[in-house]
Amino acid sequence: MIFIKVDVSNTVWFTHYSPFDKKHGLGKTKGELELEGHFIESIPEAEFVGGKSPILKYDSINGTIFYEYVDRPMTQEEEFEQLKTQLSQTQDDLGTSLFESAMDKARIADLEAIQGEMLMEIAMIKMGGAL
Fold first, then answer.
1. 35: phi then psi, degrees, rounded to nearest 5
2. What DSSP string describes the chain?
3. Residue 54 banded pLDDT, cuts 50, 70, 90
4. Is the pLDDT of residue 131 over 60?
5. Rounded distance, CA 52 to CA 41, Å?
6. Cα separations (Å) of 71 from 18, 50, 76, 113, 121?
7. CA 39, CA 64: separation in Å to the nearest integer?
8. Do 53 and 67 form a contact (C-beta atoms < 8 A)?
9. What pLDDT does 130 receive?
């Protein structure tokens, strides 16, 4: 049995895995400990949820234990990875924009060449010449 104590919001703030151990126990009877906290069979393993911290909670109505996941500040490593990802996306976007800009310039150059040819044809026709 695992002995836990909770605060007013049912957050577990004390856990003892061997409350009745002769050497390392709490030196109290089960009845005495039940006045101070709760007994549970096991504690589930917390899941990894990015950007969240697991807070161990006790549901006194059902006698169950669970995790509540709350937002936490990013670590320096997480901030670095986020910045790296953003920079990579920005570079990709910039590369795409530059490529599209170059393609647009090539299309404009082609259109200008066609326009020049058409103007030459019009001029030749106006002068009565044939191509």
1. -75, -20
2. -EEEEE-TT-BEEEEES-TT-TTTS-S--HHHHHTT-EEES--PPPPP-TTEEEEEEEETTTTEEEEEEEE-PPPHHHHHHHHHHHHHHHHHHHHHHHHHHHHHHHHHHHHHHHHHHHHHHHHHHHTT---
3. very high
4. no
5. 26
6. 32, 9, 16, 60, 71
7. 10
8. no
9. 58
Distance CA 20, CA 109 (A): 87
| Cα separation, 5 vs 37, whole angstroms | 4
Residue whose structure tokens are 């019009």: 122
Residue 40 bridge partners (DSSP): 2
Phi and psi dihedrals of 25, rounded to 5?
Answer: -75, -175
